Amino acid sequence: MSDRLPGFSTLAVHAGAQPDPTTGARATPIYQTTSFVFNDADHAASLFGLQAFGNIYTRIGNPTNAVLEERVAALEGGTAALAVASGHAAQVVILQQLLQPGDEFIAARKLYGGSINQFTHAFKSFGWNVVWADPDDISSFERAVTPRTKAIFIESIANPAGSITDIEAISTVARKAGVPLIVDNTLASPYLIRPIDHGADIVVHSLTKFLGGHGNSLGGIIVDAGTFDWSTGGKYPMLSEPRPEYHGIRLQETFGNFAFAIACRVLGLRDLGPALSPFNAFMILTGIETLPLRMQKHCDNAKAVAEFLAGHPAVASVSYAGLPSDKYNQLARKYAPKGAGAVFTFSLKGGYDAGVSLVSKLQLFSHLANVGDTRSLVIHPASTTHSQLDDAAKVKSGAGPDVVRLSVGIEDKEDLIADLEQALSA
Amino acid sequence: MNHDAYPDNYIRGILNSVKLIAMVGASPVNVRPSYFAFKYLAQRGYDMIPVNPGHVGKELLGKPFVASLSDIGRPIDMIDIFRNSSHIMPVVEEALTLDPLPKVIWMQLGARDDAAAAKAESVGIKVVMNRCPKIEYGRLSSEISWMGVNSRTLSSKRAPVPTQGMRLSLNRMSVGGGETAASDRAAKNKTEQS
Fold first, then answer.
1. Are residues A374 and A86 in contact, defined by beta-carbon separation less than 8 angstroms?
2. Which of A114, A216, A252, B120 has a beta carbon 3.0–4.6 Å from A259's, enabling a disulfide?
3. Spatial CA neighbour of A336 closest among A113, A172, A167
């Protein structure tokens, strides 16, 4: 009962979960049900009116998902979270709360290729206009701010090259502009970087990657830092103005420092519908229990693999922030002292053809479009994840034609290095 | 007391000890936060009294409205003020004329008056500002976890299934408030700017 701060690994195992009230089950049960009975009509009305704590329908909330939400909120140091069907769904739900048609948001140019596509094309049809900025040039964010800017979006460790973003510098720009900073923390996970400690107002994850960690379940999550004041200037009416669908409730007034997470749930998830399956929530929760152990092994292996590649004659360059010679090494030491993640790129002297040849010869690394699996993964971004971009944009986002991306798994590093060695020399 | 970030044991001690709560500014309109906070606290076993001079003669969930704190005529453990920051001081001044004095003065989410708080604390009254007792009770009991909220508590004990009028245990292991330190810091900065 003392006010003592448990460590990260304790939270990874316990936060949000306790033995089931009715059965005493110790592992979190999979509440595979669409709906939940009401005690009586008054209870039902209270739940629908957001007046009582409880469950209604799995598209709004589910007890298994709630454990996952509280756990990730605790690991990130946020006030609340909302789990959804995928990282992409999380991004739609976040921006729906913040932007009206015709509004703008600023996004770092170095992003997961799927996010670049979603922002450029899908969001354009909603009237949400992305303005690109360069995370290596903070002033480009300042220059991009206009009266219509409603948010800034960055990745903590950026896909595909594993570059480290100066979160604090960009949070200063966001604060000055009076807009929330959204940080995609997928490639770092809260074990390596906790963006809220560096000024993020909203954290988003693809749970599919390191948090779930086993490449078996899709999911996304939104974490509310509880730091942003949504009431100023009427800029965020979804949070500050009376909501007609809830009898005129003002979400910020009613829910205080977790109002954004509630908005995402009761206005975003409820109306857009990308609910996470409770089964997936269970799989991801199980993965999170070993996050600290896995993440350290991922990082240690990645560093060993990067060092091996940097010394190999067929390799032109390695982009891994954990290497002392890397241009992002200073930022890595500041933001991710335990390790610079496990996703990075390298380029081959033999160019595009050598990349294709390497991928085909690898025996342990799997050629697929995912990261953050226990297994080591390899992909050629130019022909896959970033193929929709033109050549100039590919190079700008770190996915030029000669570039190969690795997601280093938790196998024995000697075996990974041996696999790369045979594929590079063959 | 540091009013930017309360230790869980401070809040827990208050919610575990008070019984009679007078809610100043309670609304009979069933979509107002004061209505459903009143209802929740009554469901959790607190003896709730609605105070609102505009509704005398009416009832809130079976409890008759009174016009002022002095009309209650029984010792008040806690006064929960559902008014804007600018209307706090008169309520606190009235509270200080009561005999016996209330043990706790609680100002709702969004409400903060440091001068009024200092006045109450100078005579030994505990003060909480810019918090909701429903949210804090739900958080410390983990009942709020259904909404994906970080309760900042842990427990390996089996929780009860809440029923009408049931008091829930608030004695879970605390994460101590440190895990939402960023939110507390932001609230502090806002207070300092205003």
1. no
2. A252
3. A167
Residues 6+ positions from A342 with CB-CB distance below 8 Å: A210, A298, A299, A301, A302, A371, A372, A407, A408, A409
Residue A81's SS3 state is strand
Which residue of B lies nearest to A231 if distances are taken between CA atoms? Answer: B110
Give pLDDT tens digits for A226-253: 999 998 778 999 999 999 988 888 999 8
Report yes or no: A17 and A67 within 8 Å, Cβ to Cβ. Answer: yes
pLDDT given at position B167: 80
Which two three-digit tokens encode residue A314? Answer: 């067929």
Question: Which positions in chain A touch B179 (Cβ < 8 Å)?
Answer: 5, 11, 74, 77
Cα separation values, B153 from A73, A74, B1, B178, Å: 12, 10, 22, 11
Q: A interface mutation test: which of B29, B183, B188, B192 has the most A CBs within 10 A? A: B183
Q: What is the pTM of this model?
A: 0.94
Strand partners, A343: A407
- CATH classification of A38-287 is 3.40.640.10, yes or no? yes
Distance from CA of B144 to the nearest CA of A (A): 6
Provide the edge-to-edge strand list for the sheet that holds A181-184. Answer: A80-84, A220-224, A202-206, A181-184, A149-155, A104-108, A129-133
Contact assignment for B145 to A16 by CB distance below 8 Å: yes
Average pLDDT over residues A156-173: 96
Across residues B154-165, what is the average pLDDT? 80
User: Which residue, A61, A7, A67, A54, is CA-closest to A33?
Assistant: A61
- The verdict on a CB contact (< 8 Å) between A80 and B149 is yes
Distances (CA, A) of B192 to A111, A225, B32, B68, B188: 36, 20, 29, 32, 6
Which chain B residue has the Cα nearest residue A56?
Answer: B146
Determine, for residues A227 and B185 on separate chains, whether the beta-carbon distance falls below 8 Å: yes
Helices B8-17, B133-141: inter-axial angle, 10-degree rounding:
100
pLDDT of residue A192: 98
Nearest CA in chain A to B8: A3
Look-up: residue for tokens 């590919």?
A394
Average pLDDT of the segment spanning B150-176: 80
- Asked if A53's CB is within 8 angstroms of B146's CB, the reply is yes
For A401, counting Cβ atoms within 10 Å of its Cβ (0-12 exposed, 13-18 middle, 19+ buried), the class is middle
Q: What interface predicted TM-score (ipTM) does this complex get?
A: 0.90
Query: Are the CB atoms for A178 and A53 separated by under 8 Å?
Result: no
Q: Do A51 and B179 touch (CB under 8 A)?
A: no
- Strand segments, DSSP code E, in A241-387 are 315-319, 343-348, 366-367, 377-379
> Is A15's CB within 8 Å of B182's CB?
no
C-alpha distance from A61 to closest chain B C-alpha (Å):
7
Residues of each domain in chain A carrying CATH 3.90.1150.10: 291-425
- Which residues of A are less than 8 Å from B30 in CB distance? 49
Residue A411 region, left (φ>0) first, then alpha (ψ -120 to 50), else beta?
Answer: beta
Average pLDDT over residues A326-336: 98
* Class at the top of the CATH hierarchy for domain A291-425: alpha beta
Q: What is the token pair recorded at A409?
A: 């798994």
Q: How far is A94 from chain B (nearest CA, A)?
A: 16
